[in-house]
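Students often ask what a 'structure token' actually looks like in practice. Rather than answer in the abstract, let us consider UDP-2,3-diacylglucosamine hydrolase, a protein of 296 residues. Its sequence is given first.
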Amino acid sequence: MAPASSSPSAPPLPQLGQLRLPLPSPGAAPLVIDCVADMHLQRSQPDTWAAFAHYLRHTPAQHVLLLGDVFEVWVGDDALLEPGSFEAEAAELLRACTQAGKTLYLMHGNRDFMIGQGFAQATGAQLLPDPCVLELGSGPDTPRWLLSHGDALCTDDLPYQQFRAMSRQPQWQQHFLAQPLAARRALAGHIRSESEQRKQGQDSSSYVDLNPAATCQWLQRSGCATLIHGHTHSPGEHALGQGLARIVLSDWDADAQPPRLQALRLRSDQGLHWARIDLATTARSTANDHDHAAAP
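Now compare that with the structural description of the same chain:
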């Protein structure tokens, strides 16, 4: 990652969302929360899609926070009505998850910001504003974390920020959704192709990261010490000074070597500390257990 500018300017902090989850009573099952992001689900990546489906069916988390770019592209909730569409298949998986008792929360990313209330109704997922404060329990010592997809804080990527500001306008979205579904799919494919061409010949050191000053301002204004975000595809933990930090989620790619399939998990019975879970290893262990159980 290229070092971000130290400019003190920051995007205005939007109205903060709040997600407050109760801590379990003594003797009850522990609270388990997962954060995942940047799965970029699409039909052309069947192994990643299968890994995500396996994860949702087997995670012990009662609450799953999907922090943006769940899908490679989302051109409108009406795609859910297209027979045989990938969007409809994905909605069926998510609906089965919420009907099984898990709570799904979804935050928009830069690839799927057109997800709307139709998606929420079809899946049972709850849409989270960006940014959003996660609180556990209540009281003066309530643990708090700031959640964001992260793209709004990449303030040094001026062309993207201009597009982001334009594409979040209701008028722009209304104009886009007024086009036929096939035309929207074609346009999205063209934009993705141009994006991939720009990336060719670049290494990860040339990508724009979150601006440290802007990130610190968001944390200070929200009253949180740690930001949890995705977007950059560079998982890690970064100290920002003055007791502030950010935790970066991994992207998902089942075809990478080694596969990148991670969740960030918090358990109330493990000191309320976030831990990275390698889901590729978990999936292999589950498969081996099934193989041993089936052996004569």
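One point worth highlighting: The longest strand covers residues 236-241. Ask yourself how you might have guessed this from the sequence alone, and why that guess would often be unreliable.
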